[in-house]
Amino acid sequence: MSLAFLLTAFIVVASPGTGVLYTLAAALTKGSRAGIAAAFGCTLGIVPSMCAAMLGLAAVMHTSALAFATLKWCGVVYLLYMAFQVLREQGALAVDARLEARSLKRVVVTGFLINILNPKLSIFFLAFLPQFIATDEPRPLLLMLELSGTFMAMTFVVFVVYGLFAGSVRDRIVTRPRVMSWLRRGFAGGFAALGIRLAFAER
């Protein structure tokens, strides 16, 4: 495994995106445990894209306008729904002092859906990982599995760091209604912006 892959993967993972935004929001509204749960859910959401890339399904989606558009618009609708839920103070991002097992599971499921409904993720695996697999590699699938596993582990660790940081400053924020109000609007605007950007995304 090359240093170039590790550095590139870290930049991709650490860059603010839907998963990072959701992890921060979950940690700020429900605490550090919810941030870790969100990181876990977002990481699990990578698995379908990884499997699709290995099975060649990502290539089909890359060439099929209908398949790409279907998944893309599902993602757009879900992100806009998330923005609406944040503004309503409901759903997985509602401020809650108590974090029950049911709520924790919901945070994981939401994180999973956020990534599984991102068509760019499977195409990312299709375009990104092969660059680090030599044409004469004797076991390309095994190496791809190793690279994918490393990418997932890095995603989880980085997102957990984001979540723990957000959780550590949570008490200073949730006790200030005005700050929480603006923060909620910011998260809602972030989800809406990501949804709009996805709407204009091309294969």
UniProtKB/TrEMBL annotation:
The keyword Transmembrane helix applies. The chain crosses the membrane at residues 35-58, 65-87, 107-129, 141-162, 182-200. InterPro entries: LeuE-type. It is found in: Cell membrane. It comes from the Bacteria. GO terms for molecular function: homoserine transmembrane transporter activity. It is a multi-pass membrane protein. Keywords: Cell membrane, Membrane, Transmembrane, Transmembrane helix. Its main location: membrane. One of its GO terms (cellular component) is plasma membrane. Coiled coil: none annotated. Belongs to the Rht family. This is Threonine/homoserine/homoserine lactone efflux protein. It comes from Bradyrhizobium erythrophlei. The lineage of its organism: Bacteria, Pseudomonadati, Pseudomonadota, Alphaproteobacteria, Hyphomicrobiales.
